[in-house]
Amino acid sequence: MTQKIADDMDRKILKELMSDARLPNNELAERVGLSASACLRRLRRLEDADIIQGYTTLVDPAIDGWTMTALASVRLSRQHEDEIQMFESAVRGWDEVLECHLVTGSRDYLLKVMSSGLDDYERFIKEKIARLKCVDTIETSFVMNTIKARRV
């Protein structure tokens, strides 16, 4: 595997952008000690190499009425390709699911689900997850407080 990051300068650029992705190129260049044109060349190379995969705005989920976070672990009835595809395809279409991870252990998937409350979450489970014939069990933990959240 080839190394995508050339040197410490790339790491400095990434660190600054992870702190503030809205930095104008001239300010970014100044912070890392490069000319604006050299900084922009490096930035474009990092984007082209898919190291920088995009820029986003993080919005408070409560704006959409989502005040409850749940972590749902799901076990499929079988790990056959058709059931895996059925489940993953369904999950991709559900706005409530912010993240879905294929995991090891006694469960197959871990989902981060947002809802407006317990009634809304119950509706999500009954009308979406439980209706999938491939789902065997669902176990949910509700997030009481987020101690640390870091986006990379």
**From the 3D coordinates, which CATH architecture of the largest domain would you assign?**
2-Layer Sandwich
Q: Describe the global form.
A: elongated
How many domains is the backbone divided into?
A: 2
Q: Write down how many β-strands occur, each being a DSSP E stretch of 2 or more residues.
A: 4
Helix content: 25-40%
Low-confidence stretches: none
Instruction: Supply the helix-strand structural class.
Output: alpha+beta
> Major sheet: order of its strands?
2-3-1-4
Could you tell me how far the N terminus lies from the C terminus, measured between alpha carbons in angstroms?
21 Å
Domain HTH asnC-type: 6-67
Organism: Rhizobium altiplani
GO biological process, one term: response to amino acid
Pfam family, one: HTH_24
